[in-house]
């Protein structure tokens, strides 16, 4: 797989990236936000009850992470994230012909695992901001970030197994497999930061594990809890896997060119962390003067002891070379391609047309966003 070297735009940070075909005509943006809000509204009470099981101070630390309280313990209405995974879990149940409420335990379990990964990722990456607030490790220390992350993972499996049905056991197996793949992806991501070159194929494998696996689980777990057979669940997982790759491709674009006011992260966030994200890897694979110059700079960066003192201009230079080499455009096109493959997978499941339209609309939402 070779990245395209087609000319790229000279866009600046803060653009909406990338653009995909319009959503299914039966569903508009307001309906998508309604789906996300439904997922949040139905899952949050169960999520709060699960967090209340944690021993102090882990319950308080988790509540801060979820945005329910501030650093001083006062009630807050923080940004709890986009809630795409809970929305997908509820739609998954409906795709299997079950009521959306059937998917609530799965929605909460997936959200707990997702946040377990965020707590650990923030610490490993040294990220000081998430959702426009200081991260848990910065406020409460690394030990609490590790412990609370571990506790959320344990809670996720506990909640599913408490249901006590055959379907719950099947759902738990899918969740634990997805979690193992997620951890594999994080390990790959960290190891790639210390390598001079990573192939596009390796990067896509890593992102399929780190992001695709849990989204794939989210969009199958509700169906499994609703009694769907493995073929149906596997087909829905295929949609979720490719949606996850599209989602991560957009995240990679935002990690370099995203507006900090929208993303809640530093400017040039992924470049500061030396991430071998898709735009970087595609640019290095493209060949040509910009690609070679980028490779020289990144190789020197890996050996530099002054990387933390780089100026904004130095990061901007690297971002410009990535764009000139075609990495930005290739990643945008890859997001569109993965989006199309995800939509095509839905043809393999017999589901109500309204549910299919909503899954299409959510896929459109994932690849056209600013955060």
From TrEMBL:
Chain positions covered by the region annotation Disordered: 1-24
Keywords: Magnesium, Metal-binding, Transferase
UniProt GO BP: isoprenoid biosynthetic process
Biased composition annotated in UniProt, kind: Polar residues: 1-13
Annotated coiled-coil segments of the chain: none
GO function terms (MF aspect): metal ion binding; prenyltransferase activity
Pfam families recorded: polyprenyl_synt
CDD domains tied to this protein: Trans_IPPS_HT
Keyword match DNA-binding: no
PROSITE patterns: POLYPRENYL_SYNTHASE_1
Family to which the UniProt record says this protein belongs: Belongs to the FPP/GGPP synthase family.
Name of this protein: Polyprenyl synthetase family protein
Organism: Streptomyces paludis
């Amino acid at each position: 797989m070779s990245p395209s070297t087609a000319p790229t735009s000279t866009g600046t940070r803060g653009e909406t990236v990338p653009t995909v075909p319009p959503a299914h005509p039966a569903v508009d943006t307001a309906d998508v936000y309604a789906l996300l809000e439904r997922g949040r509204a139905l899952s949050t009470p169960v999520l709060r009850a699960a967090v209340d099981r944690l021993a102090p101070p882990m319950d308080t630390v988790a509540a801060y992470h979820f945005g329910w309280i501030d650093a001083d313990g006062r009630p807050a209405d923080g940004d709890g994230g986009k809630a795409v995974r809970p929305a997908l879990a509820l739609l998954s149940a409906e795709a299997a012909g079950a009521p959306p409420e059937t998917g609530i335990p799965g929605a909460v379990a997936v959200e707990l695992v997702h946040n377990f990964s965020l707590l650990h990722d923030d610490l490993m990456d040294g990220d000081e901001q998430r959702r426009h607030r200081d991260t848990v490790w910065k406020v409460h220390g690394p030990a609490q970030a590790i412990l609370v992350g571990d506790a959320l993972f344990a809670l996720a499996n506990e909640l599913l197994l408490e249901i006590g049905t055959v379907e719950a056991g099947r759902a738990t197996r899918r969740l634990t497999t997805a979690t193992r793949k997620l951890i594999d992806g994080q390990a790959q991501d960290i190891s790639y930061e210390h390598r001079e070159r990573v192939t596009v194929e390796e990067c896509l494998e890593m992102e399929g594990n780190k992001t695709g696996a849990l989204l794939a689980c989210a969009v199958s777990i509700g169906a499994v809890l609703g009694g769907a057979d493995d073929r149906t669940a596997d087909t829905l997982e295929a949609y979720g896997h490719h949606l996850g790759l599209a989602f991560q491709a957009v995240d990679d674009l935002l990690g370099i060119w995203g507006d900090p006011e929208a993303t809640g992260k530093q400017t040039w966030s992924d470049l500061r962390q030396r991430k071998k994200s898709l735009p970087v890897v595609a640019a290095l694979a493209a060949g040509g003067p910009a690609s070679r110059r980028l490779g020289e700079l990144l190789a020197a960066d890996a050996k530099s002891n002054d990387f933390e003192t780089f100026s904004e201009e130095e990061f901007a230079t690297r971002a410009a070379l990535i764009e000139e080499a075609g990495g930005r455009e290739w990643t945008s096109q890859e997001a569109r391609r993965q989006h199309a493959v995800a939509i095509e997978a839905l043809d393999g499941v017999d589901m109500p047309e309204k549910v299919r339209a909503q899954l299409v609309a959510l896929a459109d939402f994932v690849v056209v966003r600013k955060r």
